[in-house]
Amino acid sequence: MTADRAAGFRDRYGPWAVVAGASAGLGEAFARALAARGLNVLLAARRPAALDALAQALRAEHGVEVRARALDLAEPGAAEALAGAAEDLEVGLLVHVAAASAIGPFLDRPLEAHLSVLDVNARGPLVLCHRLGGAMARRGRGGLLLVTSLAGGQGNPWLASYAATKAFEIVLAEGLWAELAPRGVDVLACRAGATDTPGFAASRPRAAVPLMAPGAVVAEALDALSRRRGPVLVAGRLNRLAAFLFTRLLPRRAAVRVMERATRRLYEEPGP
Ligand SMILES: NC(=O)c1ccc[n+]([C@@H]2O[C@H](COP(=O)([O-])OP(=O)(O)OC[C@H]3O[C@@H](n4cnc5c(N)ncnc54)[C@H](OP(=O)(O)O)[C@@H]3O)[C@@H](O)[C@H]2O)c1
Q: Is the CB of 192 within 6 Å of ligand 1?
């Protein structure tokens, strides 16, 4: 990116960005890309050591200010606490990346696991968009970027609660995109497909699938945000093709069945 474009980005979305879910994977890649554009970043995730290491690296590599806030966004009041930690900062960009999932048959997973999915993936972004978006709208500039998933396009057996919350993020972003555009706030839902992150590896997939590099997803998302290509970006050509197939070509029932087969192939233990 040229120095001019980085400065333009900083003027629109700086001086501070909040990255919720910043210690690894796509969140870490967002934090690195934003610091490279000269934004100060407030990093949030559960693991303090990983956040501190990233904070030190960003300060050393890019000369930006970095704050780290360790919290569990599944806990009651955590999203509000994160917004509180940003209260004395001029936040021009929220990137919400953190997510929880409960993989497997819906009824076999404890209700608490599904409720955590709801808290991290739906309640959290809602609270943060409301709390941080208000100041952006008053200032007349800013951005809200929600990282969601291809899974949010239709029901997904074996990932039912996760897919439902990912749909929530897409629809929330669409509504806010139209509502906040006249107030100078750009909104984007970035639908990622399978991406090479620690989170994807930790889900222990049993089959190989094509993976995108986190940096490629982030570059597309930040480009789409700043070119005001919202409300929804599907990152990656293959994923765009898949999204077209699932949401435009296949009947809804067939799309759900295909997602079921693909998810069980990835996660089901082979039978005896
Ligand atoms: N990777 C994929 O294949 C893929 C595909 C589609 C969509 N996505 C979406 O992309 C986003 C990021 O996924 P990823 O693969 O980069 O995940 P990841 O590697 O697991 O990273 C998730 C980040 O969120 C933080 N986090 C998770 N739960 C949290 C909690 N309860 N409270 C605070 N922070 C929390 C994690 O840090 P701590 O562990 O330190 O808390 C980490 O920094 C998610 O929204 C996901 O739905 C990913």
A: yes
CA-21 nearest atom, ligand 1: 24
pTM score above 0.85: yes
Whole-angstrom CA distances from 154 to 70, 193, 209, 210, 236 are 33, 14, 20, 21, 19
Cα 25 to averaged position of ligand 1 atoms, centre (Å): 7
Q: Print pLDDT tens along the chain (272 aa).
A: 788 888 999 999 999 999 999 999 999 999 999 999 999 999 999 999 999 999 999 999 999 999 999 999 999 999 999 999 999 999 999 999 999 999 999 999 999 999 999 999 999 999 999 999 999 999 999 999 999 999 999 999 999 999 999 999 999 999 999 999 999 999 999 999 999 999 999 888 888 899 999 999 999 999 999 999 999 999 999 999 999 999 999 999 999 999 999 999 999 887 66
Q: How far is the CA of 3 from the centre of ligand 1 (A)?
A: 30
Cα–Cα distance for residue pair 102/100, rounded to 1 Å: 7
267 flagged as catalytic:
no
CA angle 220/15/41 to nearest 5° reads 70
Question: Which residue has its alpha carbon closest to ligand 1 atom 18?
Answer: 199
Exactly one of 30, 162, 168, 246 is catalytic; which is it?
A: 162
Q: 247 — phi, psi (to 5°)?
A: -100, -20
CA of 66 to the centre of ligand 1 (A): 20
